Amino acid sequence: MLFTTLKTPEELEDVSDLEEDHEVRSHTSVQTEGKTDRAKMTQLPEAEKEKIAEQVADFKKVKSKLDAEIEIWDDTSNDIIVLAKKMCMIMMEMTDFTRGKGPLKHTTDVIYAAKMISESGSRMDALARQIANQCPDPSCKQDLLAYLEQIKFYSHQLKICSQVKAEIQNLGGELIMSALDSVTSLIQAAKNLMNAVVQTVKMSYIASTKIIRIQSPTGPRHPVVMWRMKAPAKKPLIKREKPEETYAAVRRGSAKKKIHPVQVMSEFRGRQVY
Q1: Under 8 Å CB-to-CB from 193, ≥6 apart: which residues?
Q2: How high is the pLDDT of residue 117?
Q3: Quick count: other Cβ atoms within 10 Å of Cβ 94?
Q4: pTM, rounded to two decimals
Q5: Sign of CA dihedral 171, 98, 101, 30
Q6: Who's near 81: CB < 8 A, 6+ residues apart?
Q7: Residue 83 and residue 122: Cα distance in Å, rounded?
């Protein structure tokens, strides 16, 4: 039986992502044998790696916006938030692949990941479209439908760009690995899609607040999703001190300066009495 130790995120960044002997599985990974396309990404010229890193940094800025938008909502009764989180996670795996990291090993894994994103986008479209159809505000409805069209467009674009692959090129008689164009297109498509998801989540909430809850012949109309704020993390009423801190406090309190009786008497006799 093979046992593996759990690694911290930092260790995964530095070590396990590039090991060929250890299989890193993901819900989007469908191929694991042979030399990986992910490993080839580490053989790109340093100039290409720097440009890819810049693209990924821009992508992460958009991801931070999505995180800020969805982390305030309880996702137990809100499938729009669930789908947004899922799409974000898969897109992060795709961008990690372009840096030779993460669970996706082959181009086929990236293609499959893009397919999963497209499916999640279709499900989000179905939910948000119901909200748009119930929204009485024409302007709000139009904006939401426009963002849904963006999700559909950029999901399709991401599927096209998912054929990312490092290829050997002959530049000036020297054979080098190159993948800059395909990688840049993939990250840009992911960034655009992430932006569209951010705006869709925002506008879905706004549209939901404008829907009038009316009684219909078949009964009350139920909301498509529930927008509940996430409960704040519970904090202890009393701060528990660490044992070593308590011990140190006791030691400090119990340590008193000892003064010799002869010194006390000499100081007393030296005082002037008025």
Answers
A1: 87, 91, 117, 121, 151, 154, 155, 157, 158
A2: 95
A3: 25
A4: 0.70
A5: negative
A6: 70, 73, 74, 75, 201, 225
A7: 10
All domains of the chain, ordered by start, with CATH?
9-220 (1.20.120.230)
Contact between 105 and 25 (Cβ < 8 Å) = no
Predicted confidence at residue 110, as pLDDT, reads 92
Rounded CA separation 109/260 (Å): 80
Contact predicate 47/176, CB 8 Å: no
For residue 227, the one-letter residue type is: W
165: left (phi over 0), alpha (psi -120 to 50) or beta: beta
Strand segments (E) across 112-221: 167-171, 174-178, 215-216, 219-220
Q: Mind listing the pLDDT tens digit for each residue in 224-274?
A: 899 998 877 777 666 666 666 555 555 555 555 666 666 756 665 555 554
Q: Using CA atoms, how far apart are residues 115 and 162, in angstroms rounded to an integer?
A: 9
- Which residue type, as a one-letter code, is found at position 222? H
Nearest-angstrom CA–CA distance, 113 and 95? 11
pLDDT digits (tens, 9 = 90+) for 161-207: 888 766 665 556 655 666 778 888 899 999 999 999 999 999 999 99
Residue appearing with tokens 């932006």: 195
